[in-house]
């Protein structure tokens, strides 16, 4: 059996760190990161202000990402990253493999919507998000005004779309809380969900 979840977040919300720490704590767990599917800079659209539109689905090879996720779900044990081998054939039938998909534009992408057992969304207030963004080095580097002109408006747009979708069940997480607090909460929540699956 497969348990899939995604960790979605505003830029620099802490989703990658959270996902990596969860992977170390959970058996049979793997991560697929949306950041691995960005198109090269030359293929990313530029708007009339000269901003590269990275915070949009068109900036990503989403078909490749969907294929990778489906392949993992079909055969998780052959993914090469299983952290806990089943003890016997009997145990094998009861094993649950966990896939964490982490990214920033996952919740509103229709081909993936039916896959998730659990959805988490890390939020940050504007000032904290901008502060964290300023401490990171990006390739290509952020141009002046890029955060206010593209990154933050796109985050608000997608977050609003998510909130307006009443059928989408999402667990919102406060990204200003400590990593330990977030990790403890999400880990406990996942364990509860896994126990339901086993029942």
UniProtKB/TrEMBL annotation:
Keywords: ATP-binding, Kinase, Magnesium, Metal-binding, Nucleotide-binding, Pyridine nucleotide biosynthesis, Transferase. One of its GO terms (cellular component) is cytosol. CDD domains: NRK1 (cd02024). Pfam families: AAA_18. It catalyses: beta-nicotinamide D-riboside + ATP = beta-nicotinamide D-ribonucleotide + ADP + H(+); beta-D-ribosylnicotinate + ATP = nicotinate beta-D-ribonucleotide + ADP + H(+). The keyword Ion transport does not apply. GO terms for molecular function: ATP binding; metal ion binding; nicotinate riboside kinase activity; ribosylnicotinamide kinase activity. GO terms for biological process: NAD+ metabolic process; pyridine nucleotide biosynthetic process. It comes from the Eukaryota. Pathway: Cofactor biosynthesis; NAD(+) biosynthesis. Belongs to the uridine kinase family. NRK subfamily. This is NRK1 kinase. The lineage of its organism: Eukaryota, Metazoa, Chordata, Craniata, Vertebrata.
């Amino acid at each position: 059996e497969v348990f899939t979840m995604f960790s979605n977040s505003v830029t620099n919300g802490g989703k990658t760190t959270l996902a990596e720490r969860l992977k170390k704590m959970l058996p049979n767990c793997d991560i697929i990161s949306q950041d691995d599917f960005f198109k090269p800079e030359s293929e990313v659209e530029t708007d009339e202000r000269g901003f590269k539109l990275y915070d949009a689905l068109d900036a990503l090879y989403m078909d490749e990402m969907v294929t990778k996720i489906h392949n993992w779900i079909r055969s998780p044990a052959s993914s090469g990253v299983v952290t806990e081998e089943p003890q016997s054939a009997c145990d094998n039938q009861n094993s649950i493999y966990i896939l964490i998909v982490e990214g920033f534009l996952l919740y509103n992408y229709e081909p993936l919507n039916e896959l998730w057992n659990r959805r988490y969304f890390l939020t940050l207030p504007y000032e904290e998000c901008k502060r964290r963004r300023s401490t990171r080095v990006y390739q290509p580097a952020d141009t002046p005004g890029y955060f206010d002109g593209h990154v933050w408006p796109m985050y608000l747009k997608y977050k609003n779309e998510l909130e307006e979708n009443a059928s989408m069940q999402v667990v919102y997480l406060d990204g200003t809380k400590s990593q330990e607090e977030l990790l403890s909460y999400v880990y406990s929540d996942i364990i509860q969900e896994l126990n339901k699956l086993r029942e």
